[in-house]
Design a protein that fits this description.
single chain; flat; 0% strand; mainly alpha; 5 helices; 110 residues
């Protein structure tokens, strides 16, 4: 029996979160990119939006605003498209476009 792409993607994404928390940005990016490909195969907009949000947060961690902006906007649009207002609101605004709280990017499990 074939494994679920969404199940594998979820595990891969969690490993990316661990890497991000340990500031291993290269490994985190590899894991989030892999998870995103698998989420897209599973056709789940909400988990795809969350993974893209994490890539945006990763870009912010690297102070790469040029990458963060389109990732965060894409995540917000996918959440909106899926009809999840709560998750849409959990996407930080792109750098330079909105509120600024706290001292830096954070990763929250949802």
């Amino acid at each position: 029996q074939a494994e679920s792409p969404v199940g594998e993607a979820s595990c891969t994404e969690r490993l990316g979160v661990i890497s991000l928390r340990h500031r291993d940005y290269d490994t985190a990016q590899e894991r989030f990119e892999r998870a995103l490909l698998l989420f897209r195969k599973g056709k789940s907009l909400l988990v795809e939006a969350n993974c893209i949000r994490r890539l945006g947060v990763l870009a912010l961690s690297r102070t790469d605003r040029a990458t963060a902006r389109p990732r965060l906007e894409e995540s917000r649009q996918l959440a909106r498209q899926a009809g999840d207002r709560r998750r849409e609101g959990n996407v930080p605004p792109p750098p330079g476009l909105g509120r600024s709280h706290g001292t830096g990017p954070e990763v929250h499990d949802q």
